[in-house]
Amino acid sequence: MPRKLAAIVDEFASAPRDVVLEMLLEFSDAVPPLPPELEGHEGMEQVPECQTPFFLKAEVTEQKTVRLYFQCPPEAPTTRAFAGILSEGLEGATADEVLAVPADLYQRMGLAQAISPLRVRGGTAILQRLKRQVSESQSLDNGDARD
């Protein structure tokens, strides 16, 4: 797991329950705005497991690092917080590091005790789709290299 993300996981796991909710709210503000070419969700994938409209796009750059884009309405702070955590924790990470993020990330953070199982399931779906996009992007790059 990338160092930045591991630090966030440890911070959440060791925080008291009432502080966890405050921390989530802080991360909901950490979602970078979409670049103009992605506004309107063009080229982004919706995560239907989320109760709120949530869209994401993951790209592997030529330097083999992952660039993430998220769109989620401000009135869904918990879901936006998942995006903020992933944005901050995976910034500059390689594709292999992203693919190594454990599927039970949010349980490791202790979020299962602080938010509803439905929200945790949505966050898990976000991570799962993100990792699938990274894997597919990496496969395309590897296929192009053989041509």
UniProtKB/TrEMBL annotation:
Gene3D superfamilies on file: 3.90.1010.10
InterPro entries on file: Fe-S_metab-assoc_dom
Pfam families: SufE (PF02657)
Residue stretches making up the Fe-S metabolism associated domain: 11-133
Family named by the database record: Belongs to the SufE family.
Name of protein: Hypothetical SufE-like protein
Source organism per UniProt: Dactylosporangium matsuzakiense
